[in-house]
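Risk mitigation, structural track. In case the binding assays with protoporphyrin IX containing FE fail to produce interpretable data, a predicted complex structure has been prepared as a fallback.
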Amino acid sequence: MYNRIIKFLGLILVFVLMWVPAHSQDEMTAIDNDMFLKPQRPVSVFQHDEHNETAEIEDCAQCHHLYEDGQLVEGESSEDMRCADCHEEKGIGKTPSLTQAFHLNCKMCHQEKKSGPVMCGECHVK
Amino acid sequence: MHDLYNFVSGPLVWVAFAVFFFGCLYRLIRMLALVNQKEKFIFSYMSFKYSLRSILHWSIPFATENMRQHPVMTIVTFAFHFCLIITPLFLLAHVILWDEAWHFSWGHLPEGLTDIMTLVVVFGCFFFLIRRLRLPEVQFVTSASDYIILGIVAAPFITGFLAYHQWFNYPFFMILHIISGEIMLITIPFTRLAHMVLAPFTRAYMGSEFGGVRHARDW
Ligand code: HEM
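Fallback model:
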């Protein structure tokens, strides 16, 4: 009886040990859509580090820009925040909606560089 | 691929909408000019009340004698025209692209619903096709252009459906969809599809003549 419980607990321990590093080392491969109330599309593929390496983007603020009182803070970035912290479901004035923030940021650069996905299904892969 | 996409989703959209808009305007003005030249007296009995009454009757399913005699045709026709116009206007992808370009957006329908509405349009096109092929009285008044028009209307819906589901070659059908949508917009003013803007005037004229001159119903 005790033997079984110990075996069972051991099994759980093994799982936990396998689980934790798997999660903490998980590299970002897609952009989470948990901040959308009713997501309509599959999450967009985005391998954060690899993407920025191949695309040769050095400045984090290209995407993680920081605004204070509506003014862009030059030379600083906001990677400790989520886009959804400032971009809401609906656009307000010059601040685009969350969906548009992603689309304008991602798609416009791909169109300018003529490299990277531009059509819905190339990012929102089923 | 980027150059092609940028072109069909940029300048070509401008061309398509400009031709569509000014083409329809031209058709309306030409129609009014022709009436003014040949049958000016029509203006004398045009009546707002009878016009509206006729348009209204022909806009409600089964509100006319003709519709009651052809129930299947009536249901298909109404479902078809409703989905044909509403689907692209309130399609999420279209609203998002419009927002990207103009920073201006409106509501959209759930994608599951627009997916079904797309199928309704495609089904409608097949129905009209079979009808043209099968019924002798319809075949008699059918010309090659009628089949081409059916194809032009069905194409954006079939390709849009395939692109949405990412079936087969996605980029290919996405670009084909955009081009076929633009072809449809461009051909509207110059084919029988122009009934989209002209039909209300035909009805207004019929309604006014029947109501004001013949004192009869035109439905
Ligand atoms: C004028 C240029 C047009 C552009 C740029 C455009 C763009 C698009 C895009 C990006 C999609 C989504 C594909 C996806 O989810 O991957 C789409 C879908 C669709 N479009 Fe268009 N479109 C255009 C014109 C039209 C026109 C004129 C019609 C019909 C009158 C139309 C009907 C549809 C339909 C029915 C769908 C798919 C709906 C579904 O099955 O869920 N489009 N379009």
